[in-house]
Design goal:
single chain; mainly alpha; 2 domains; 4 helices
């Protein structure tokens, strides 16, 4: 449970009914919440914050490492099952295992 005191006006929240206009004055926010077109336009331009980091919609960030190449590769079912059993990231783990094998031979 949060230790900060809620500033929510629960009486206002509980008396609001579906379809009621939301009270709005120009200084209340960036758009009129009763205007669906304005709300959609504002949200389309909004930045997304994920885990404290700014994520701009529709734009890929700079590559941390050179881009990998897409290939089609046939592997035995046992290999696929082994790596998929570890959960998400199984392709990255295959790549890591192959890199380690290359370094051992070098």
């Amino acid at each position: 449970m949060s230790k900060t005191k809620s500033e929510t006006d629960w009486n206002r929240v509980l008396t609001h009914r579906e379809g009621d206009r939301i009270p709005y004055e120009v200084g209340d926010g960036p758009y009129d919440p009763n205007d669906a077109k304005a709300a959609r336009a504002w949200l389309a331009r909004a930045d997304l914050i994920r885990n404290g980091k700014l994520v701009r919609r529709g734009k890929r960030g700079p590559q941390k490492a050179p881009t990998k190449k897409l290939v089609s590769l046939r592997l035995s079912p046992e290999v696929i099952e082994h790596f998929k059993a570890g959960g998400p990231g199984w392709q990255t783990r295959i790549d890591s295992t192959l890199r380690k094998a290359i370094k051992k031979r070098a």
